[in-house]
Write a structure and sequence with these properties.
Number of strands: 0
CATH class of the domain at 127-255: Mainly Alpha
Largest sheet: none
Number of helices: 10
Strand content: under 5%
CATH architecture of the domain at 127-255: Orthogonal Bundle
Radius of gyration: 61 Å
Order of helices and strands: HHHHHHHHHH
CATH superfamily of the domain at 127-255: Methyl-accepting chemotaxis protein
CATH topology of the domain at 127-255: Helix Hairpins
Distance between the termini: 43 Å
C-alpha cells in the first residue's frame, strides 16, 4: 500500500501537522538558545579562567615584590637605626667641639691679657728710658758746669805762674774728661731718644696688630661658636627625624610582613579558584558538547519530519520574523565612538568579558536565533556576517583590555584608520547591508 494512501488527512489534519511542525520548530529554537547559552557560559568561564590565571601569575609577582619590599624595609630599618646612632655620635662630637671652642676662646683671651701685660712692661721700660734721658740732661748740665770750672781753674792757674802749672794740668784733664763725658752723655741721650721713639712706634704697631688679630680671632671664634650652635640644633632636629624614620621603618617592616602574609593567602585562594575554574571549564565544555549534540538530534528530527511531510505532499509554513537591520548597523557603528571615549576616560563602564560575547547584543541574538531562517536565502553571506560579527566583538573586548591595563598605545593602534577594529567593523556593517538587501527582495 502506498504511504500516501495510508496517511490521508483532511484540513484539520493539516492543522495538526502545522502545529506539530511549529512545536518542533520551537523546540529547535529552544535547543539553539540552550546551545548559545552554553557557548556563552563556556566563553565566560574560559575568559574568567584566563583572568584568574593572569591574577594568579600577578599574585606570584606581587608576592615576590612584597618579599623584596619586606627585605628592603628590614634593611631600611637597620640603616635608619645606624643613621640614628651616627647622628647621636655626631651630636656628642659637636658638644665636645663646643667645649674645645670655649677653651680656645678662653685661651685667646688669656693670650690677649698676657700680651697686654707684656706691652705694659715694655711701656714701663720706655718710661724708665725717659727717666734716664732726663738724668742725662742733668749730667749734661753737670758737664757744662765742670767745663766752666775747668776753664776758671785754668785762668787761675795761669795767674799763679809756676805755682799753678800742676793745677793747670789737672784743670785741663778735668776739662777733657768733662768734654768726653758730655759727648758720651749726648750719645746716650741720642740713643735713648731713638730707642724711646722706636719702642713707642713698635708698641703702637704691635698694639694695633694685636687689636686687629684679637678682634678677628674673637669674631672667628664667635662665628664658629654660632655655626656650631646652629649645627648642634640641626643635629638635634636630625636626631628627631632619624628617630621618626626608624619608627616609620619599623612600621613599614611590620606592614610589609603582614602584607606578605595577606598576599600568600590571596595566592592560595587564587590557586583554589584556579582549580575550581578548571573544573567549571570542563563542565562547561561537556555541557556545550551535550547541547550541541542535542541541537543536532532535534534538527535531525525536524529534518526527518519535514521529509516525511514532503513524501506525503503536505506543506507547512515557517514564519520569518522581521529584523531591524538599520538599528543593528547603527549600534555597531556607534561602538567606535564608545571605545574612543573609553580610551580617553577609562571609567570601567565596559566589561571585556561581556563585550567579547557575539550572541549578547541584538544582532548577535538574531544571528544565533531567528536570523537562521535568513540563512536559507544566502548561506555564504550569513556565515560571513556571523564570523565577522564574532571577530568584531573579540577586537572590541581586546581594546578594552588594553585600556584597562594602561596600554593605550596598543588600543590606539587597533582603533587607528588602518587598524584591525576599523577593518572588521567596516566588513560587519557591509555584510549587514548585503543581508538586508537580500531580505527585501
Amino acid at each position: 500500500m502506498n504511504i500516501k494512501n495510508i496517511f490521508k488527512f483532511n484540513k484539520s489534519n493539516d492543522s495538526i501537522h502545522q502545529k506539530v511542525f511549529e512545536m518542533i520548530d520551537d523546540l529547535v529554537e529552544e535547543v539553539r538558545k540552550l546551545y548559545l547559552d552554553s557557548e556563552s557560559l563556556k566563553k565566560i568561564i574560559i575568559y574568567q579562567k584566563s583572568s584568574i590565571e593572569k591574577s594568579s601569575s600577578a599574585s606570584h609577582e606581587i608576592s615576590s615584590i612584597v618579599t623584596m619590599t619586606a627585605d628592603a624595609s628590614c634593611e631600611l630599618d637597620s640603616k635608619a637605626k645606624d643613621s640614628y646612632d651616627a647622628v647621636l655620635n655626631s651630636t656628642t662630637d659637636l658638644d665636645e667641639l663646643k667645649k674645645m671652642i670655649s677653651e680656645v676662646n678662653a685661651s685667646s683671651q688669656l693670650l690677649q691679657k698676657s700680651v697686654e701685660n707684656g706691652l705694659r712692661s715694655i711701656a714701663s721700660v720706655t718710661e724708665t728710658m725717659a727717666e734716664i734721658k732726663e738724668k742725662s740732661k742733668i749730667i749734661n748740665d753737670i758737664v757744662f758746669q765742670t767745663k766752666l770750672l775747668s776753664f776758671n781753674a785754668s785762668v787761675e792757674a795761669a795767674r799763679a805762674g809756676e805755682y799753678g802749672k800742676g793745677f793747670a794740668v789737672v784743670a785741663e784733664e778735668m776739662g777733657n774728661l768733662a768734654k768726653a763725658s758730655g759727648e758720651a752723655s749726648k750719645e746716650i741721650e741720642q740713643i735713648l731718644n731713638n730707642g724711646v721713639d722706636k719702642t713707642k712706634e713698635q708698641i703702637r704697631l704691635v698694639t694695633n696688630d694685636l687689636e686687629k688679630v684679637t678682634k678677628q680671632t674673637i669674631n672667628h671664634i664667635n662665628s664658629i661658636s654660632n655655626k656650631t650652635e646652629e649645627l648642634s640644633s640641626r643635629f638635634v632636629q636630625l636626631s628627631h627625624y632619624s628617630r621618626e624614620t626608624e619608627e616609620k621603618a619599623k612600621q613599614i617592616s611590620n606592614a610589609t610582613s603582614e602584607q606578605n602574609i595577606g598576599v600568600q593567602e590571596i595566592a592560595t585562594a587564587l590557586q583554589a579558584l584556579e582549580s575550581t575554574s578548571t573544573e567549571l571549564e570542563d563542565m562547561s565544555v561537556r555541557t556545550h558538547s551535550s547541547s550541541a549534540d542535542l541541537a543536532k538530534k532535534v534538527e535531525s528530527i525536524n529534518s526527518q519530519y519535514l521529509s516525511l511531510l514532503s513524501q506525503l505532499d503536505l506543506k507547512v509554513f515557517k514564519s520569518i520574523k522581521p529584523f531591524d537591520f538599520k538599528s543593528a548597523k547603527k549600534a555597531h557603528i556607534d561602538w567606535k565612538m564608545k571605545l574612543t571615549n573609553y580610551l580617553q576616560n577609562p571609567d570601567n563602564s565596559l566589561d571585556p568579558k561581556k563585550v567579547c560575547l557575539d550572541n549578547a547584543c541584538v544582532l548577535g541574538k538574531w544571528i544565533h536565533g531567528d536570523g537562521l531562517a535568513y540563512r536559507e536565502y544566502n548561506p555564504s553571506i550569513f556565515d560571513s556576517l556571523k564570523d565577522s560579527h564574532a571577530e568584531f566583538h573579540k577586537t572590541a573586548a581586546q581594546i578594552i583590555d588594553y585600556v584597562n591595563v594602561h596600554n593605550n598605545q596598543a588600543a590606539e593602534k587597533l582603533l587607528s584608520p588602518t587598524g584591525k577594529y576599523i577593518q572588521v567593523s567596516d566588513k560587519t556593517v557591509a555584510l549587514i547591508e548585503e543581508l538586508e538587501a537580500i531580505s527585501l527582495k
